[in-house]
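lol forgot to send this yesterday, sorry. struct tokens for the thing we talked abt
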């Protein structure tokens, strides 16, 4: 299985991303554990550009990863890209997800209420083989909705991209 060359964070301007995900990625970079080739692309509804997203990320890193060396934080920020997206818009999602035929990892830093919309749009877009979707929240509102989301996720990524 080929390694992902692109990490797409859906919900990139939210609390989960700012408090936990970006600081963790910066710490991985400081430890030499973040692949040099990995592109990190944030997507959310906020009308930002790369520079605005980097400024927001810088503030989060200062607050939640101030122990990471300044030069590492600066190098990490330079790797960040951003695109404003509507999760229900196939063209928006295709633009942020598609970076060639290399696998992509998509991180859902989203409220559970929009999982189904995001998954349906990803299903329409299609992902390169060996792509993965990371979901770190409550999955569904009950057993029936969790099964429906699981079925949709499996259809998008195939068995190789599914992990419990």
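and heres what i got for the seq, position by position
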């Amino acid at each position: 299985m080929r390694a992902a060359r692109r990490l797409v964070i859906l919900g990139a301007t939210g609390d989960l991303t700012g408090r936990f995900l970006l600081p963790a990625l910066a710490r991985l970079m400081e430890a030499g554990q973040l692949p040099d080739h990995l592109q990190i692309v944030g997507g959310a509804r906020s009308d930002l550009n790369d520079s605005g997203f980097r400024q927001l990320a810088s503030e989060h890193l200062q607050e939640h990863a101030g122990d990471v060396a300044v030069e590492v934080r600066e190098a990490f920020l330079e790797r960040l890209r951003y695109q404003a997206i509507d999760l229900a818009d196939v063209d928006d999602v295709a633009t942020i997800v598609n970076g060639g035929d290399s696998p992509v990892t998509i991180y859902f830093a989203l409220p559970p209420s929009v999982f189904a919309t995001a998954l349906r749009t990803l299903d329409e877009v299609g992902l390169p083989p060996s792509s993965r979707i990371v979901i770190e929240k409550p999955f569904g509102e009950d057993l029936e909705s969790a099964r429906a989301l699981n079925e949709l996720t499996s259809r998008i990524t195939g068995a190789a991209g599914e992990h419990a």
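Residues 116 and 149 are 7 Å apart (CA to CA). anyway ping me if u want another try
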